[in-house]
Amino acid sequence: MIRLRILIPASFLALWAILALISPWLNLQPDHITLANILHPPSAEAWLGYDELGRSILDRLIMGARTSFLVAFWVVLLSGIIGTLIGMISGWFGGWIDLLIVRIIDVFLAFPGILLAIALSGLLGAGIENVVIALAAVGWVGFARLARAQTLSLKRREHVLAAMALGAKLPRILFFHVLPLLIAPLIIEATFGIASIIIAEAGLSFLGLGVQPPQASWGSMIKEGTRYMLVAPHLVLAPGVALFVIVLSVNLLGDSLRDWLDVKSD
Q1: pLDDT tens, 123-134?
Q2: Cβ contacts of 30 within 8 Å, gap of 6 or more
Q3: Which of 3, 124, 146, 265 would you call most buried, defined as having the most Cβ atoms within 10 angstroms of its Cβ?
Q4: Residue 213: is the preceding peptide bond cis (ω within 30°)?
């Protein structure tokens, strides 16, 4: 049952990733304007119809999938590396180092992450690279808290104490004896982080702080389509449904992985 719960959302996410990776090699024309097709509804020729400039919504939806995938991948990667290193250092050394890092984490948690991302995006300027930097700057906190809590308990394990007694250096202890036991909870944290990052990227693009026209993004597609909801609701429905399906799949996959990797549940 758990395998089925993992397989179904993983299939949607695999399709999302495949489309995002192969989209540059597909015969797509997301920026091609055809005035005769303005606001045309879905049909056999265009499955999702055309937008207010006569551009194919399907082509822009696939390119928007690439945008969200790249942002989610790089933000999770950067946040995971930075947050895990900070959390491991905090949990291992303790003392004033741990106290300082915990206070910094508390400061970040005192403000909603999306507001900090909006402020950073406003300072850095629009663009996909700045979106990655802004979201990674606030996304490391969850990884740091998890890595710190796990390191506090793992550093007292027998194999870690044995490595210390044998004279192993600190980097070797952390990366070969502590980090492998952090992988499973960090993967689960990353899955939930992907969902929040996708929504945050769409929100920033909706506000005009993310990717800039004519580059496609699900958030910018929703923003552009809100002006025509009464006459052409497909402009909003297509990216909205895609966003809903991917975020739901990520959350379901995270829940299933947590149950599957939870030893206590067996």
Answers
A1: 887 788 888 998
A2: 55, 56, 59, 60, 62, 63, 214, 216
A3: 146
A4: no
